[in-house]
Amino acid sequence: MAVALIAGRCHLLFDRASVWIVSLPEKFPPAKESQLLSLDVNQILGPKGSIARRLPNYETRPQQLELAEAVHRALREEKHLVAEAGTGVGKSFAYLVPAILHATADQVEERLSEDDNEEEPVRSVLISTHTISLQEQLIEKDLPLLNSVIPREFSSVLVKGRGNYISLRRYQTALARAVNLLGETEFDQLQQIKSWLKETPDGSLSSLPFRPLGSMWDEVASDTSNCLGRKCKTYDECYYYMARRRIQGAQILVVNHALFFTDLAIRDELGFGIIPNYSAAILDECHTIESVASSHLGIKITNSQVEYTLNKLYNPHTGKGLFPALGLDRFSEMVAKAHRGIDTMAFDLDEHMGPGVANKRVTKKDVVPNLVSELLAKLKEKLSELGDTAEDASRRQDFMSAAGRLESLSNHIRSWLRQEEEDYVYWLERVNTRRGTTRMEMHAAPIDISGRMREMLFQQVPSVIMTSATVSTGREGGFEFFQSRVGAAGSLTKQLGSPFNYQDQAELVVVPDMPDPSSRRQEYDKLLPEMIKRYLLRTDGRAFVLFTSYGSLRAVAKQMHSWFVEQEMTLYSQADGMPRGQLLERFRKNPRSALFGTDSFWQGVDVPGDALQNVIITKLPFSVPDHPLLQARLDAIRNAGGNPFMDYQVPEAVIKLRQGFGRLIRTAHDSGIVVILDSRIKTKRYGRLFLNGLPETKMRWETVRDDAEPVFEPDFV
Question: Which pTM does this prediction carry?
């Protein structure tokens, strides 16, 4: 990616790292030196280890110990590792324990080394996750427990975006300009923050008792481009800098994938990052990293982004903004002209897409005139001049911050239109917002991230551990697909099954005579609701129904609405727009219900216990090649002489099916059925690959007709 693009992202994200310090339980008494030197994973996780001595009901899991040993060895030998561990293995402890031992190895070396002047190497270990729930588990539960049982000193921190913290200086400035800068709702929320500041322990957005409007929080959040640093009068009491000071010397850094890959891109271009240096990285939920990395190594600009930035300077509809607030109305016409430019450009892009399509690949440069970049650049120059001549430091920073945002947007738009990045795919997306407006999005992403990942990650970090419950495509081996996609060819691999007894806990039901959803689509669509009814009645609800598209989900939910009413059963549909967390909470509390979900419910969703006893998979989860990025990747495989379907679409779908299956059994006490309503798993040769990727369990073939004899073919698995 061009330096200008990274610089733009750097302007928005640089140095946005901050931390939560873990509250630590009381530790065991200090260990004897001999214990400290000989400490290994078995002494912590084993049947007579420190965790077993602390927790009376602790059960040793052989798979967990085996995984921990593999991680410990990879860290010690500075090698990369891809590890799959089934549900129930206890992956987090299996990588946290060796990570802590690795990060605290200097405490052993200090006792062994005679050279006190030798420079200490960086020992911290970074742990990255995809979901917030896993981050919270690590920071609030797992790490505090391990800190209490491991006889070495270490600290653990959650690295969060800087924008999560309030800037006291910016808050005071916003208060002074509220009348000319903020709307009524924003003003009311600003007053609520006044009381919150008297009691907040860390000034973090997560401790705010209400969800603020983005436009209001943007006026008060800590921001690199709008920070005076040590020159600020509030520096000593700044929440961000207080948190940042605590991060120095931390051994375990917990981040999310988004921040991790943004940091990698900035390090690659600028030579330094926004996360403290680390000696090893552990990427949990690693099956998501190709998607996340592609997003954060690419470009995304929207007309609403530009409009939002311009509105902060001057909003033609309300008359508010930075310029009116400072009495600089003479510059408002320049902003209004830029508004007209982005409106026209969005219209031109919409026309280029044509009617009735949600996305379109753009293969030619300069498909529409660039009516914005030059205007934004001129505005940036004016703001820079105002900043250079401003006597007040706070006002100067406001001007420079706005100038930086405009420069970033100007460069991004120019780069997208000129298609400056080679081996990238460029495309447009049209999004209808809840406010009834249309948002035009300009996207670009690398077609193949493997080369960039090798250069930025695997060749730079001595040891990278990647782990997930579903990262291979089969029961034995099958890591090649993942390794090739993320640039980890040649890494060590480890595959461990689940300790759960799937033979006793789960049953797989396949309906082999369903109409083929690809060749007999109308017949399949007509029969699908009836088959879903059959299996919902079998478990009296308590079911996830997983779809591969919102269109199919909406259509089936509409057809089944009256049936749910008749059965006095509740339907929760992801298509209704309710946040995923609320859907899950309501589903857990209502036993006679079904939750219809698509992509995000196939993975990362945990409903243990009786609330979920049935997972109905409506269709094998093939990615439909109607998205420009997927089209480009399939074209690249085809042009290289490969088979896009068998080399990419099938293995990707196998992994996703395994994720969907994995929603059912979350504890040793769970039980239920998984139903597959796609006959291709029986009729197509590749169907065997899907079945071989699932845990060994009882299996039943059931025909569409209720009165037909069930067919058993356990040898097929």
Answer: 0.86
CATH numbers and ranges of domains, the chain: 15-161+249-297+449-499 (3.40.50.300), 299-446 (1.20.120), 502-716 (3.40.50.300)
Return d(Cα 212, Cα 214) in angstroms, integer: 6
Q: How far, CA to CA in Å, does 393 sit from each of 16, 95, 201, 386, 558?
A: 21, 47, 28, 12, 59
pLDDT in tens, 6-32: 434 443 333 333 344 343 344 444 444
Instruction: Indicate the burial class of 42 (C-beta count within 10 angstroms; 0-12, 13-18, 19 or more).
Output: middle
Give the C-alpha distances (Å, rounded to integers) separating 251 from 40, 154, 400, 534.
17, 6, 36, 53
The predicted-structure confidence for 377-426, as pLDDT tens digits, reads as follows 999 999 999 989 888 877 888 888 889 999 999 999 999 999 999 899 99
Give residue 491's identity as a one-letter amino acid code.
Answer: S
Supply 703's token pair.
């025909």
- How far, in whole angstroms, is CA 588 from its chain's centroid? 24
**Tell me, what DSSP letter sits at residue 243?**
H
Helix (H, G, I), strand (E, B) or coil at 207: helix
Q: In what order do the strands lie in the sheet with 424-432?
A: 299-302, 438-446, 424-432, 359-361
DSSP secondary structure string for all residues of 360-423: EE--SS-SS---SHHHHHHHHHHHHHHHHH-SSHHHHHHHHHHHHHHHHHHHHHHHHHHT-STT
| One-letter amino acid of 428 | L
Residue ranges of alpha helices (H) inside 477-603 are 480-486, 502-505, 521-538, 550-566, 580-589
**Under a CB-based contact definition with an 8 Å cutoff, are residues 656 and 546 in contact?**
no
Give the pair of three-digit tokens for residue 203.
């000034």
> Tell me, what's the pLDDT at 82?
97
Distance separating alpha carbons of residues 676 and 686, to the nearest angstrom: 15
Q: What pLDDT score was predicted for residue 186?
A: 81
Residues of the chain with pLDDT under 50: 1-34, 36, 114, 117, 708, 710-717
3-state secondary structure of 581: helix
Can you state the angle between helices 168-181 and 393-418, rounded to 10 degrees? 80
Token pair listed for 522: 């109308």
Helices 550-566, 521-538: crossing angle, 10 deg rounding: 40
- Other CB atoms within a 10 A radius of the CB of residue 665 amount to 26
pLDDT at 136: 86
Q: Is 295 helix (H, G, I), strand (E, B) or coil?
A: helix
Grouping H, G, I as helix, E, B as strand and the rest as coil, residue 700 is: strand
At residue 581, the pLDDT reads 85
> From the centroid of its chain, how far is CA 278?
21
Which residue is listed with tokens 């004899």? 709
pLDDT of residue 230: 82
